[in-house]
Each structure stands twice: as structure tokens, then as C-alpha cells.
């Protein structure tokens, strides 16, 4: 089978799977994308196909995560959080389906703008790549301080950088002593599922359970659809007004040039910038929503592509989160030395296979979300229980950890998840900070303590 | 089992895990089922594939079988337990629009004016059949 055929098949697979996953509200991008990408990499897919898979996955997931956000007022994932205000307004006035149409139409335009723009910018930045690679340890530590300062934990995040780096290196030493090789997969799987594991741990502890105990099940309000759109394949440019298309285009262009800012931050910033100039609530809400969802798409694409093409080391919030496995999936992709998509693909490959991924996801997810959003949401809410979803993630993570490191792998994963998850939940030390500390920990501990 | 725990079951206390309510016991069951199916799939693969697949692919195929195991577990878990959510499909009455605006501290008159000022938005609303919902009430009010 040729590489292109595999790339197309994997992109179709990602498009279908992630269209469905996007419907599950609150599904964490990192916890889902990292293991799925890892599976594809470890199964031996060619790098071009891995990239097409990933691009298809993020676009499909982002298009459908607008569904719970708009229809239920539950953020589809963290990047959807800034959109909740406007989405809730649209839901209150009974027009969630219009909010949804605007959001996904903006999103799809944003993604296609971001791919070429961020690619060009990355090629320009790549002349500095070697500098970044050589000083990766210092850069990651500095980034941990910076991201930590802006995280919910602020000073706690910064104070805990050295202790957490110590814990990580300690765990790493134990697993390296037993197995003879390092288990970085276990660490980032652990960091990724930390928040989920912590909630489960709290539920099992008699003393902590009251924190998350509820008397009645969650209630979801879902407004009836007032009008369905005609035809199967809507035209995103017709869904948006000309002015909205212009805002979408402009903000997507700007956000394609950023790679170090948090997608959530960019989304609210751009949304406010555009929304504050619009009069009338309906117009403000629909314009902001289309712009914001476009920005989540474009920052996602840009923050994956720029570090990947320019540096080869994960230097953006998306790269240390959901796109992690494109940089580091040992033994196939590694960051030390840099041997991953950065070295394996040329900029033209990134453009071609990126486009394959985006187009396929667009063809699958866009008409699906436009036509079946409400029906699909009802089916998921009524028939798929949350326990089964959580169970599947824990199962997949255990499987991957065992595959890489046997019982040691599983224990290291859950140890990391316990530490990271508790720090995240109680002290606000975010997942991004933890990933940065993980990457900087080797340099930090050996410099400070001479390991 | 302590009395307190039995009480918990009678009251059907829920716990909230990543944004949705679940029963602790069901969660333990689904995790157990999912982890064992995934790992069993993987072990079966490691036993079976060496005789039918090239040596370097055995681990990857075994991993795939493990993933198949976790998907089967997802299916079983979906059949075993019911979701703990309630779905409330309240119909929208356009009459409530003004009330909603009041509650949200928005000015409905200003909103109407902004729609009238912008033919593009007015046209869009007409196409979607919601123009009257914004405007009809104005007529009602004038009566």
C-alpha cells in the first residue's frame, strides 16, 4: 500500500472516530489524542500517515465539540470554555442550532487558513531551530515558570517545579534501574489522565468523597431544533455573513502566527476583540462564536505545526499537550536526539498530508455536525454511560503502559497520574506546567544536584 | 460492608467524575472490565500471533487486539449500565424572549434597533425564520 493510501485511510478513520468523540462533552483533548496518536505511531504507520491522522482528528474533534457547547452549554473541551457565555445566550433565546452553525462554519474556515500560514511562518522560524534544540532543558524550565505563573496555581506551580522534577526523575531512576530504559510514555500518559484518576481516587476515599458526591444526576437541557438546513452539504461562507467571514479570516490569520500562547487565552482574546465592536446581542453572540471557534482551530493547527516544523521539540501548549505523540513516541519518535516528524517530513509533505487530513475531516465532520447534531447528542446522552467512557480510557492507558513497560509501566503511569492529578486539582498546577517540568526535569536535576 | 455504605446505596449517591455523574460501584465495574479485556486481548495476541505473523509485527498486532478488547468492553459496559443523567427537552416559546433579555440585563429595544439597522442580519433572521420571533413581540407590545 502506498503511503498516500495509508494516510487517506487513517485520516478517514480519525475523522469518523473523533467526530463521535467530540460529541462527548468534557472529553479532554490530551487524554484522548495522545494515546490514540501513540497507537497509530506504535503500530508502525508511516510518518506522513500519522500526521494526516492527527490533523484529521483535531479538526473533526473541534468541529463536533461545538455540539455539546452550543446545545447543552457544557464545554466540549477546555478550548470551548471561553465560548460558553455567548453559547448560553443563544441557548436561552432558543437558537442553539444557529450558534452551532456559526461556530463550525467559522472553525472550518479557520483551519484551512491556518495550515498554509503557519507552515510559511514555521519555515521562516526554522533557521533558529538548532538554538532551541541545544538549549531545550533551559527553555522548558523557563517555560514551566512562565506557564506556571499564568496557571491557576501561580506561585504554587512555580514553587513546585523543583520538587516535582525531583519526583519525576526519582520515578524515572527506579524504572530505568528495573527495565534498563526510560519510560517517558508512562510519564505523559500519567500526566494526561491525572485529573480523571484524581476524581476516581476522591470517590474511593471515605474522607474525600463528600467533595464530589451529588444527590441527583446531572441534568442536561436540550432545546428543540426549530429548523433544519436544506441539503446535505452546507456552504460555510453562506452560513456566515460577509463581515463575520472577514473577522474569522483576520483572527485566524493572526492566531496562525502565534505558537507560544494558550489556545484558550487566544480564543477569549480574539473573541473579545471582535465581539466588543459589534452592536446587538444576537449579532455579537454569533460573530463572537464564529470567530472564537475559528481561533481554536487555527491556534491548534499553528501550535502543532510551528514547533514541529521549526524546532522538532514540543514548544507550545498544544505540542506539550494533545500533539505530544508527534514529537515523542519512543522508540519511533524521540526528542533527544530529535528524530520525529521534524526530521522525517519536508514542509511540502506537511502541506500535502496536512491538507489530506483537514479535507477528509471536513468532509466527514462538517455535514455530520450540521445535519445530525441534535440527534447524535440525544443518543449519546440517553444510551452511553459516563462510566463506560471513563473505563475505556483507563483500559487503553493501562494497555499502552503495559505494552511499553509491563507492570513497571503501569505502576509508573499511575504514580505519575496520582501526583500530577492531585497537584492539578488542589493546587492548580496545570497539565501544561507538568509537561514542561517533565521535559525540563532531566536538565534541572542534573544541573542543580549533579545527577 | 459497613452500615454507612449500605445507606449510600439506598440513597443512590452519585459522584461527579470529569463533568458527569456516576455511581462509584458501576465505575469500579467498568474500569475492571475495560482493563481486563484490554490486557487479555493483548496477552492472547502475544500467544497467538507468533505462529501466524512476522516476528517484528507481533507486538503491534497484539496491541491492536488489546484495543479491540477495550472496544468490546465499551460495548458491554454500555449495555450493562444506564447513564445517570436526565435530559430536559423544554420547548422554546418565542414569547419568553423579552423575559430572557430582561433577566440577562440586555435591552430588547436596542436589539431590535440593531437588527433593523443591519439589513444583512435582518435578512439572515428572515431566512432562518426567526425574524418574527424578535419583531413580533414588538407588535404585541404596541397593542
Structure description:
The complex is a heterodimer of chains A (451) and B (143). Chain A has helices at residues 3-23, 29-42, 47-72, 84-92, 96-125, 129-134, 136-150, 155-159, 161-179, 184-204, 236-239, 242-256, 263-275, 281-311, 317-320, 324-327, 341-344, 347-383, 386-427, 431-449; strands at residues 213-214, 218-221, 334-335, 338-339. By secondary structure, chain A is mostly helical. Chain A has one domain. In chain A, strands 3-4 form a two-stranded antiparallel ribbon. The longest helix of chain A has 42 residues, at 386-427. Chain A starts with a helix and ends with a helix. Chain B is mainly alpha-helical and 143 residues long. Chain B contains 7 helices and 3 strands, in the order αββααβαααα. In chain B, α2 runs antiparallel to α3 (58-80). Chain B is elongated, with a radius of gyration of 28 Å. The chains are: A mainly alpha (451), B mainly alpha (143). At the A-B interface, α10, β1, β2, α14 and α18 of A face β1, β2, α2, α3 and β3 of B. β1 (213-214) of chain A pairs antiparallel with β1 (14-17) of chain B.
- Termini gap of chain B: 68 Å
Q: In which order are the strands of the major sheet of chain B placed? A: 1-2
- Provide a count of the helices of chain A: 20
Provide the succession of SSEs of chain A.
HHHHHHHHHHEEHHHHHHEEHHHH
Which oligomerization state do the chains in this entry correspond to?
heterodimer
User: Averaged pLDDT of chain B, please?
Assistant: 77
Let me know the largest β-sheet of chain B: 2 strands, antiparallel
Morphology of chain B? elongated
Structural class of chain B: mainly alpha
User: Would you list the SSEs of chain B in sequence order as H and E?
Assistant: HEEHHEHHHH
Q: Which bin fits the share of residues in helices of chain A? A: over 70%
Low-pLDDT windows of residues of chain A:
none
- The stretches of 5 or more residues of chain B where confidence is low (pLDDT under 50) are 1-10, 137-143
How many beta-strand segments of chain B?
3
User: Strand order within the widest sheet of chain A?
Assistant: 3-4
Q: Distance between termini of chain A?
A: 47 Å
Amino acid at each position: 500500500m502506498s503511503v498516500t493510501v495509508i494516510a487517506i485511510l487513517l485520516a478517514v478513520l480519525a475523522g469518523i472516530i473523533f467526530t463521535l468523540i467530540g460529541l462527548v462533552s468534557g472529553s479532554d483533548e490530551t487524554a484522548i489524542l495522545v494515546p490514540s496518536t501513540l497507537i497509530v505511531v506504535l503500530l508502525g504507520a508511516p510518518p506522513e500517515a500519522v500526521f494526516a491522522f492527527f490533523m484529521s482528528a483535531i479538526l473533526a474533534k473541534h468541529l463536533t465539540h461545538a455540539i455539546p457547547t452550543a446545545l447543552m452549554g457544557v464545554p466540549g473541551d477546555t478550548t470551548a470554555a471561553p465560548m460558553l457565555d455567548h453559547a448560553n445566550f443563544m441557548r436561552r433565546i432558543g437558537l442553539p442550532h444557529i450558534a452551532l452553525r456559526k461556530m463550525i462554519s467559522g472553525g472550518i474556515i479557520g483551519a484551512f487558513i491556518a495550515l498554509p500560514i503557519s507552515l510559511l511562518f514555521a519555515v521562516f522560524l526554522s533557521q533558529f531551530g538548532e538554538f532551541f534544540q541545544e538549549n531545550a532543558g533551559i527553555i522548558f524550565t523557563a517555560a514551566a515558570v512562565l506557564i506556571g505563573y499564568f496557571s491557576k496555581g501561580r506561585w504554587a506551580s512555580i514553587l513546585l517545579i523543583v520538587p516535582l522534577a525531583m519526583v519525576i526523575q526519582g520515578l524515572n531512576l527506579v524504572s530505568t534501574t528495573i527495565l534498563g530504559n526510560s519510560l517517558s510514555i508512562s510519564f505523559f500518559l500519567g500526566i494526561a489522565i491525572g485529573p480523571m484518576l484524581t476524581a476516581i481516587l476522591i470517590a474511593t476515599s471515605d474522607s474525600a468523597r463528600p467533595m464530589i458526591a451529588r444527590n441527583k444526576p446531572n441534568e442536561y437541557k436540550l432545546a428543540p431544533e426549530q429548523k433544519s438546513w436544506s441539503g446535505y452539504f452546507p456552504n460555510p461562507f453562506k452560513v456566515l455573513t460577509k463581515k463575520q467571514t472577514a473577522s474569522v479570516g483576520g483572527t485566524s490569520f493572526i492566531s496562525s502566527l502565534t505558537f507560544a500562547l494558550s489556545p484558550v487565552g487566544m480564543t477569549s482574546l480574539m473573541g473579545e476583540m471582535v465581539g466588543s465592536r459589534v452592536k446587538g446581542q444576537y449579532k455579537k453572540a454569533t460573530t463572537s462564536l464564529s470567530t472564537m471557534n475559528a481561533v481554536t482551530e487555527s491556534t491548534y493547527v499553528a501550535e502543532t505545526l510551528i514547533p514541529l516544523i521549526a524546532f522538532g521539540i514540543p514548544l507550545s501548549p498544544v505540542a506539550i499537550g494533545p500533539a505530544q505523540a508527534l514529537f515523542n513516541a519512543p522508540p519511533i519518535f524521540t526528542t533527544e536526539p530529535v528524530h520525529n516528524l521534524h526530521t522525517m517530513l519536508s514542509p511540502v509533505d506537511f502541506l500535502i498530508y496536512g491538507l489530506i487530513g483537514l479535507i477528509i475531516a471536513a468532509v466527514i465532520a462538517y455535514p455530520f455536525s450540521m445535519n445530525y447534531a441534535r440527534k447524535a447528542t440525544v443518543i449519546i446522552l440517553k444510551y452511553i454511560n459516563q462510566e463506560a467512557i471513563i473505563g475505556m480510557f483507563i483500559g487503553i492507558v493501562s494497555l499502552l503502559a503495559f505494552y511499553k513497560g509491563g507492570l513497571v509501566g503501569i505502576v509508573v503511569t499511575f504514580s505519575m497520574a496520582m501526583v500530577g492529578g492531585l497537584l492539578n486539582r488542589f493546587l492548580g498546577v496545570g497539565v501544561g506546567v507538568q509537561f514542561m517540568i517533565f521535559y525540563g526535569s532531566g536538565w534541572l536535576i542534573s544541573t542543580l544536584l549533579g545527577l | 460492608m459497613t452500615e454507612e455504605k449500605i445507606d449510600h446505596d439506598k440513597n443512590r449517591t452519585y459522584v461527579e467524575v470529569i463533568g458527569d455523574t456516576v455511581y462509584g460501584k458501576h465505575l469500579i465495574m467498568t474500569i475492571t472490565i475495560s482493563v481486563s479485556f484490554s490486557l487479555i486481548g493483548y496477552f492472547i495476541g502475544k500467544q497467538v500471533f507468533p505462529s501466524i505473523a512476522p516476528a517484528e509485527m507481533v507486538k503491534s498486532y497484539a496491541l491492536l487486539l488489546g484495543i479491540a478488547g477495550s472496544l468490546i468492553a465499551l460495548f458491554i459496559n454500555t449495555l450493562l449500565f444506564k447513564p445517570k443523567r436526565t435530559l430536559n427537552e423544554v420547548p422554546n416559546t418565542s414569547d419568553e424572549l423579552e423575559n430572557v433579555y430582561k433577566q440577562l440585563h440586555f435591552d430588547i429595544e436596542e436589539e431590535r434597533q440593531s437588527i433593523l439597522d443591519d439589513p444583512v442580519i435582518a435578512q439572515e433572521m428572515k431566512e432562518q425564520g426567526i425574524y418574527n420571533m424578535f419583531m413580533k413581540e414588538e407588535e404585541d407590545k404596541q397593542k
